[in-house]
Amino acid sequence: MSTPNGPAPKKAGGMTVREAGQKGGETVKKKYGPEFYEQIGRKGGQATKNAHGHAFYEQIGKKGGKKGGEATRDRYGPNFYEQIGQKGGQKVKQLIEEGKRAAAAAAQLEEQDKKAS
User: Fold this and answer.
1) What contacts 25, CB < 8 A, 6 or more positions away?
2) What confidence tens digit (pLDDT) does each residue in 23-32 have?
3) Which of 12, 50, 51, 70 is least surrounded by CB atoms within 10 angstroms?
4) Which pTM was predicted?
5) What does DSSP assign to residue 9?
């Protein structure tokens, strides 16, 4: 295993730092189980919330959304948005038509029920 700067650093026992970290993680996983990670994750999230507040999550969410949008733009180009916009518009149009048909059918059944009564 190597790093961008050459071979991975070896520890005294002939194991890389990464290998040692993986081995330690597996040992903890076997000893404590997945619930342990849920508990420490929840504690970490609560500590972050207490330290930084709601605005912090809004800020990182915006950054993540911007990065994702830029990555999508770079990957697919501007025509992609036009295509998905057209598909979305057609889907909305289809759903509206289906809703109108369903409402008309329901009204027709209701009218038939009234006549039968």
Assistant:
1) none
2) 999 999 899 9
3) 12
4) 0.38
5) P
